[in-house]
Amino acid sequence: MGNWKDKIAVVTGASSGIGAATAKKLADEGLLVVLVARRLERLKKLAEEIFQKGGKAQVIIADLTREKDRARVIQEVTGRFGGADVLVNNAGLGWYGYGAEMSWKTAWEMLQVNVEAVAQLTLGFLKKMRERGSGHIVNVGSISGSIPSQGVALYGATKSFLDNFTTALYRELRGTRVHVSVVRAGPVKTEFCETALQRENGMHVPTERVGVTSEQVAQRIWKLMLRPRRVIYVPGWLRVVPWAELSFGWVIDRVGPLLLRKQKRADA
Ligand SMILES: NC(=O)c1ccc[n+]([C@@H]2O[C@H](COP(=O)([O-])OP(=O)(O)OC[C@H]3O[C@@H](n4cnc5c(N)ncnc54)[C@H](OP(=O)(O)O)[C@@H]3O)[C@@H](O)[C@H]2O)c1
């Protein structure tokens, strides 16, 4: 069981959804949270809420599509605190529709935030964690990374990257007190689907009305920090998904296209 009181947690994408709920939870548990995202007003409001409850928070505005901003997050946190004890790579964006209709602008942004930012921030903070002999990197992945699905071709691939990256680092660090984990989440009720829909040629995400709450995910992340593991599923029953892909991928090959076509017609 880790003692996280007064430790430094960097949470990306803290301006809404899972990131905001996780930042609140970690602040409630006594960590100083560094809130990272683009929307200043939202981060200021969240920091204020945390102060009111006696917690500690700092804000860093960063556009994670920009390499310079990502480097500045690492520099500022290292300069102020000597490094991060916890890094929650949560910022991410999605898009639903036919891959052939996805704009390069959306694809590029997704690759920058979902993949490159995770790689740069992880490598930027991991070295100090290893030197100190403690730390935890939590990557907010998705069940889409375990089951290639029509409609989320690139998004699912970015989340497969997270699975692979996490597992490899976990194996490198096993036996040390530095942990790397991935949270394979199913649908969560946040602004995620709305943001995806607003992008060029975006369709409604079929699961937009279902899902667990951000607070439930935040609670699971906190438990994960207390008992580190390589992977957790939220909700837990989703652990059957990788097995289902292996056993029944051929069914999805047939049914998947029909479901996407149906959604396309519903959106028309
Ligand atoms: N909701 C779901 O169903 C679901 C399911 C599985 C996994 N996930 C994963 O959970 C994570 C959080 O998503 P969410 O559901 O909480 O969605 P959300 O409410 O839309 O939050 C996304 C967060 O990412 C930040 N972000 C996006 N682009 C950014 C950029 N260029 N620079 C900095 N920050 C950026 C946003 O902040 P700003 O806009 O203020 O920059 C926001 O705080 C994502 O990685 C997502 O893939 C979500």
Task: Write up this protein.
This protein has 268 residues and is an alpha/beta fold. It has a single domain (8-267), classed as 3-Layer(aba) Sandwich (Rossmann fold). Helices cover 51% and strands 15% of the residues. It has eight helices and seven strands; from the N terminus they run E-H-E-H-E-H-E-H-E-H-E-H-H-E-H. It has helices at residues 17-28, 40-52, 67-81, 104-132, 153-173, 192-198, 214-226, 241-267; strands spanning 8-12, 32-37, 56-61, 86-89, 135-142, 178-185, 231-234. The protein has a seven-stranded parallel beta sheet, with helices on both faces. Helix 5 links the parallel strand 5 and strand 6. The longest helix has 29 residues, at 104-132. It starts with 7 loop residues before the first strand and ends with a helix. The structure holds NADP nicotinamide-adenine-dinucleotide phosphate. NADP nicotinamide-adenine-dinucleotide phosphate (NAP) binds at residues 13, 15-19, 37-39, 62-65, 90-94, 113, 140, 142, 185, 187-188, 190-192, 195, 211.
